[in-house]
Write a structure and sequence with these properties.
Blueprint: H1 2-11, H2 14-18, H3 20-47, H4 52-75, H5 86-114, H6 116-142
Length: 144
């Protein structure tokens, strides 16, 4: 009985009402798919001899295209209506470009200092940290 009361009270909490937990969960699922594509492109290109910085940029572009579309269509959609379009894509780029610059500096720095194989391992960590910042920026600046 008490457990039911707590559960119902939790469901009325503002975090549930605003969809923060739902959006966060969806963002993680989309982010994993995005990271997988980003990482696979980065590893494939750098294994083929492309330097780390352009390889990271190519991977981030592939991941960003998928992420923008899925987050607009699923994660931050409202009442089943996608939140896409050129104005949002412009705001998306204003957030994505600095995050990509930070990612590229960190990943290419890891490749230079630690070697390519460790940079392959470092990339998901770098992107994971940036994803936390990105979630709030996407939520409040891009998909509002």
């Amino acid at each position: 009985m008490i457990h039911r009361l707590l559960r119902h009270r939790l469901l009325r909490h503002p975090l549930f009402q605003r969809g923060l937990l739902r959006e966060g969960g969806s963002f993680v699922v989309v982010g994993v798919a995005q990271l997988l594509i980003d990482w696979l492109v980065f590893v494939a290109l750098t294994a083929a001899g492309v330097p780390a910085a352009p390889g990271n940029l190519a991977g981030r572009i592939c991941g960003a295209l998928l992420g923008f579309w899925l987050n607009g269509r699923v994660t931050f959609a409202q009442a089943g209506v996608a939140r896409l379009g050129w104005p949002r894509f412009g705001r998306f780029l204003l957030v994505w470009i600095p995050l990509t610059a930070i990612s590229t500096l960190l990943v290419s720095g890891a490749a230079s200092a630690l070697g390519l194989h460790l940079a392959w391992l470092a990339k998901p960590l770098v992107e994971g940290v940036l994803a936390v910042v990105a979630f709030f920026l996407w939520r409040h600046l891009v998909y509002r």
